[in-house]
Design a protein that fits this description.
With 311 residues, the protein is α/β, with parallel strands linked by helices. It folds into two domains: 5-98 and 285-302, Rossmann fold (3-Layer(aba) Sandwich), CATH 3.40.50; 101-275, Rossmann fold (3-Layer(aba) Sandwich), CATH 3.40.50. 35% of the residues lie in helices and 15% in strands. The chain contains twelve helices and twelve strands. The chain has helices spanning 15-22, 33-42, 59-63, 83-88, 101-116, 119-127, 153-163, 188-193, 214-220, 237-245, 265-268, 284-302, and strands at residues 5-7, 25-27, 48-52, 70-74, 92-94, 145-149, 168-172, 183-184, 197-200, 225-228, 251-254, 273-275. The chain has a seven-stranded parallel sheet with strand order 8-7-6-9-10-11-12. A five-stranded parallel sheet has the order 2-1-3-4-5. Strand 1 (5-7), helix 1 and strand 2 (25-27) form a beta-alpha-beta unit. Helix 1 runs parallel beside helix 12 (284-302) and helix 5 crosses helix 7. It is globular, with a radius of gyration of 21 Å. Bound molecules: NADP nicotinamide-adenine-dinucleotide phosphate and 2-keto-D-gluconic acid. The site of NADP nicotinamide-adenine-dinucleotide phosphate has 28 residues, from helix 7.
Length: 311
């Protein structure tokens, strides 16, 4: 196999060495003059692209790769992959479902507990020698109501974990799932109004853009907490900042943001939010499994086999 592969964006550590055993590999530098020069030099030969769900496949990059046959993305989200453009060019696209489900669900539960129990604020207090000063009390999670926006693979894994905390679970998505024991809400504001915690784990993209808006946040209310482990685009971020600043929402645990890695200063200044750098799948174990799927999908394609995990 001699198909040249381009690597764009951060990759799990097992990807580059394995790909180098099988393909000529080029690594795209940060979008600079250097990257343009590399694309000028090898862009027309590249037949496979390894990327991740955050970096995605910008249209300009796709256009610079006229011989591209296959994209293998490390991650489940497809909102940055420009799937329609890929389809028009018959470019095959794979992502990495399932292998990250457990760790992302764990991260959602961790964010919920950290926000409710003021874990990060308490840690900051101890490090600063302030002990209990100004900390106040946290809030109970056990037995509370959890609303899940998006009861897919990760949402269901969150629900199973939350059940161990005796939480009352409801969910909203486009269609009710007849196979789960949780209460379905066909209206997101109604779900929010019946929730102490609202966990967002729907895909990004235009269909979910700004779904968690002022109406939903106000329905969640001053004793409610928002947890977002899906995509920043799903939440109206200025409306979230206003709700937190005005005390119309108790707190937020956020792994994802509108304009990553930029986080509004207003959120950084707040003690009642817990912030993560889009890190929910960031364990050694999961990232290695994601990386292996990236490698295996590219190898399958160039061996003339179907993709293992097509989008
Ligand atoms: P999934 O199994 O496809 O589940 C997605 C769920 O969202 C489905 O139950 C779907 O139900 C619902 N949904 C989709 N579009 C919707 C809409 N317009 N309105 C309401 N509900 C909608 O996906 P998954 O594996 O659980 O992953 C979910 C998302 O998590 C990914 O797409 C990715 O963006 C995000 N993610 C984030 C991280 C991170 O690091 N923070 C890591 C992994 C994944 P219906 O079809 O019935 O609506
Ligand atoms: C990753 C993600 O952080 O799977 C997704 O959709 O957003 C995350 O798992 C991302 O793919 C970066 O590698």
């Amino acid at each position: 196999m001699t198909a040249p592969i381009l690597i764009a964006g951060r990759m799990p550590p097992n990807v580059i060495p394995q790909l180098q055993e099988h393909f000529p590999v080029h690594i795209l530098p940060e979008p600079t003059a250097e990257a343009d020069a590399l694309l000028q030099e090898v862009g027309s030969q590249i037949r496979g692209l390894a990327t991740n769900a955050v970096q995605g496949v910008p249209l300009a990059l796709m256009d610079a790769l006229p011989a591209l046959e296959v994209v293998a993305s490390s991650g489940i989200g497809t909102d940055a992959l420009n799937l329609d453009a890929a389809r028009r060019r018959n470019i095959r696209v794979a992502n990495t479902p399932d292998v990250l489900t457990a760790d992302v669900a764990d991260a959602g539960i961790a964010l919920m507990l950290a926000t409710a129990r003021k874990l990060c604020q308490a840690d900051r207090n101890v490090r600063a020698g302030r002990w209990l000063q100004g900390l106040g009390l946290g809030h109970r999670v056990t037995g509370k109501r959890l609303g899940i926006l998006g009861l897919g693979r990760i949402g269901q894994a969150v629900a199973r974990r939350a059940a161990a905390f005796d939480m009352h679970i409801g969910y909203h998505q486009r269609r009710a799932n007849p196979d789960v024991p949780y209460r379905y809400y066909d209206s997101l504001p109604d779900l929010a109004a019946d929730s102490d915690f609202l966990m967002v784990i729907v895909p990004g993209g235009s269909a979910t853009e700004g779904m968690v808006d002022r109406t939903v946040l106000d329905a969640l209310g001053p004793e409610g907490t928002l947890i977002n482990i899906g995509r920043g685009s799903t939440v109206d971020e200025p409306a979230l900042v206003d709700a937190l600043q005005e005390g119309r929402l108790r707190g937020a645990g956020l792994d994802v943001f509108h304009d990553e890695p930029h986080v509004p200063d207003a959120l950084i200044d707040m003690d009642n939010v817990v912030l993560q750098p889009h890190y929910a799948s960031g364990t050694v174990e999961t990232r290695l499994e994601m990386g292996q799927l990236v490698v295996d999908n590219l190898r399958a394609h160039f061996d003339g086999q179907p993709l293992l995990t097509p989008t």
